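Rotation project, supervised by the postdoc (A.L.). Task for the rotation student: set up a whole-complex structure prediction and record inputs and outputs verbatim in this book. Inputs entered:
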Amino acid sequence: MSDDKIRVSRRDILRGAGAAALVGATVPAQGAPAGKAPAGLSRVGPGPVECAFELNGKQKKITVEPRVTLLDALRDRVGLTGAKRICDRGACGGCTVWVDGQIVNSCMMLAVDARGKKVTTIEGLAQGDKLHPVQQAFVKHDALQCGFCTPGMIMTCAAMVDQGKAKDRASIQHELAGNLCRCGTYPHIFTAVEEAAR
Amino acid sequence: MKGFSYYTCADLSSATRALQELKGAAVKAGGTDLMDLLKERRLEPTDVVSLHAVKQVAVKGELSALATLQDVADSAWVKENFPAVHTAAAEAATPQIRNVGTVGGNLCQHSRCVYFRNRNFDCHATGGEGCPALDENAFHRYHAIFRGTHCVSAHTSNLAPALMAVGAQAHCLHPDGERTLDIGLLYDLNPAQGKPNHLTLRPGELIRAVQLKPTPLARNSIYVEFRERQSFDFAVASVAAAVHVEGGKVRQARIVCGAVAPIPYRARAVEDAMIGKALDPAKAAAAVVADAQPLAGNQFKVVILKRLVQRALEGLKA
Ligand SMILES: Cc1cc2nc3c(=O)[nH]c(=O)nc-3n(C[C@H](O)[C@H](O)[C@H](O)COP(=O)(O)OP(=O)(O)OC[C@H]3O[C@@H](n4cnc5c(N)ncnc54)[C@H](O)[C@@H]3O)c2cc1C
Ligand code: FES
Ligand code: FES
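Outputs recorded:
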């Protein structure tokens, strides 16, 4: 088997399924007829819905069912796999992204709720080759081991530095409470954030 | 997660009217509680109505139900006049959840009972009989030490005890109009079979806002909790307390405990017994736990609650 064949990943298969679902969108949805909603409400789904939002500074349009989380949309439809799917329950921070500049768990948010918003992922944090000061400090202070928590860690740390919330070690710990690291890299992370905040 | 139709609305009145038509629809504010229930297929609604797009109207003296926990934690007005509410919001969940989770969702969150959250179990709340947590071999470390009739789950809202301690009220909206309830009256200790929450809200009724009145009692309030992890965790037990003391005598007192009963537990008899006397934290703490009926696996919670009540009262101006 060639390398190329081996590299067909679960995500590629899911992306394929996405395309199939798109075709399926012409099939009438069960339940209420599409578009019909009680007064004052607008309705989408249960079939695929077009979601337009700004992703890392560029306009992006994807088509997903309302039940798809922003995390799954980013990873499986857009192909940005920086945000990690670890607990999928809002309890580890591995999937942290910014929505309109605020850190959120993308696993706890529906992709349809990102419509019209600005989403920033770890892939959009550096300006070209110029790393964010927090990324630079992570490199310098060896603030990662296996690296699985790192994209989420950096998104949280970069937000707290940019928002001036990294005042001292206690406030850094409080702001980082939603990001878990199984490798226990915390001391190096705290040092990196302290330096980036200076 | 099962597929669903997704509805957005611009204001709560259209949502509450629409909910009369969309029977069985789930309501989503920040979604940080609801998403778990949908992913576990504990709830499988065909319609989900989102309040996400409702514009938050910040009125002085009111917290919008759509305000986030972080909005509450960041409010200088709340911090100065309702310290218990400030701490309860600032210590809840994680920064990520606080940015999204709302006041209304926090008050209306479902039980974290491990059996309720697992669709392989049935109980009174899911339309079945009995309570798996009452089995002697059950895992009930985090369950109630004050019981309801059918359910020994523990109510884990941070905000509910704090808002009750400062005498807050909820403005609730339904198609016929609005009613205003003390926060404590939002909760029903013995809900009907098949009702997945302990709320007194009617089908489709929504909390619009929480009313806060600065009073001497509210200003002298405190929230303390015990959790097993330093970073974040649901409280094993929490206490919100407030006292108004004049001339060395207690004129008004509130002690409300979280995570120890299926709904926030207000120790009314203890509050009454404190009136007219000097504040005695140790005596009050012993009195609060006197009626506790712990399960085999959570007797430790009685000791923790007692210490928390004492610590809370010692932290107030006497
Ligand atoms: C990792 C993690 C940690 C957590 N830690 C804590 C904690 O320490 N303390 C704590 O208290 N909670 C905690 N939570 C629970 C919860 O997510 C938050 O309390 C949050 O405030 C819920 O708000 P929401 O808007 O996201 O709720 P949603 O999920 O949107 O709604 C929850 C319920 O409330 C109903 N509802 C929402 N708004 C209204 C309204 N205006 N009127 C009527 N009904 C309404 C919904 O129909 C739904 O049934 C935690 C959750 C997670 C995932
Ligand atoms: S994957 Fe989202 S918080 Fe763990
Ligand atoms: S570096 Fe391995 S989990 Fe954090």
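Student's summary: The two ends of chain A are 52 Å apart (CA to CA).
Supervisor addendum: Chain A touches chain B at residues 29, 31-32, 37-47, 49, 65-67, 69, 88-91, 93, 96, 102-105, 107-110, 112-113, 156, 173-178, 180 (CB under 8 Å).
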